Amino acid sequence: MELLSIAAILLGFLALLLGAGVWIGVALMATGWAGMQFAGGAIPAGSVLATTVWGNSASWSLAALPLFIWMGEILFRTRLSEEMFRGFAPWLNWLPGRLMHVNVLACGVFGSVSGSSAATCATVAKIALPELKKRGYDESLSLGSLAGAGTLGILIPPSITMVVYAVQANVSIIQVFLAGFLPGMLVMALYSGYIAVWSLANPNRTPPAEPSMSLRRRIAESLNLIPCLLLIIFVFLSLLMGWATATECAAWGVLGALAIAWWQGALTWQSFWASVMGATRVNCMILLILAGASYMGTSMAYTGIPMALANWVNGLQLSPYALIAALTVMYIVLGAALDGISMIVLTTAIVIPMVKQAGFDLIWFGIFLVLVVEMAEVSPPVGFNLFVLQTMSGKDSNTVAKAALPFFFLLVAAVAIITVFPDIVMLLPRIAFPG
Length: 435
Hints:
mainly alpha
């Protein structure tokens, strides 16, 4: 059977399971099992399932994910959610969309310390969704902005996805990190710009502006942000200065969150246990999906679908810009079935020679890949941020996917911008490494 037909069958099977209400992680595993049947009977599907799930779940770097989510659960049970909005509100009151921009700012700040899209999305959503709903902001835009801005966790360094690419492409990890800063600012600007335009076009769906304050009052309100900002700065500096690994920084973040809760008088046995159970539920959901996605990615690798798609693009002999456009489409298609890291691992061996031959810098291409992986995070049916928000908001998958669609297209626009203006990516690496 042709690989295209196999891919269509597997995607249809996955869509059928998700539509029937099967748990997402179980649906991914079942689709991976079905894919293994097309890979030849000599490969034992059960053994591959066991080794893949264990190998991906036992990763030390994954330990940072539950710790960062627990940090968010602890902070959620303090007065941080109210204080974050009280602190940002006086400065954003003049901007169309007002507090909706907090989603973008908070994800940008937290993404700089977490390195994980799922952790960023889950943590900020836990804090922001209840506050925005209470203040009367549009729920669809709230969900969409969180889905899109949550992807900043893998674009703003440090990023696990960037490390994976740098190893695969044999390029400098530090240069790839530096290359991610300005594109990260670009994506944040695009998101905030869209929120402002949407708010101007839909004034009846935006709450009225809060009363204006004097400069002294604004500063006084912003002082509420100091504990949280100090915690984030401490975690970020620990990572940047090499004092601790990402997982160790997450552990320090949990201790800092507990200290803030104690200082505010919000640390009780009930709130502590509620934070543990809340983090456990979210982590079980995320890790089950990760296990299913890793098994499905392994299954796809055995069938040869990703490599066949990359070889097909290579055979078209496209011009440089046409090649980037074709690769963008290819990764969008792969993102409908694979997680981001699997996409990178399975395709870089074929794609990197094509990119080098077309004259593109591999550092620049790394940021391009991160952006298309961000698209995969908000692309149905297996967009990971969509799953996170679906669980946290209680909305169905179609509602969350529809809300995230504009932010998906903004990421496409970001890819077009860095392709036409590659210096946005390469400026900082060239300054730091002039040779």
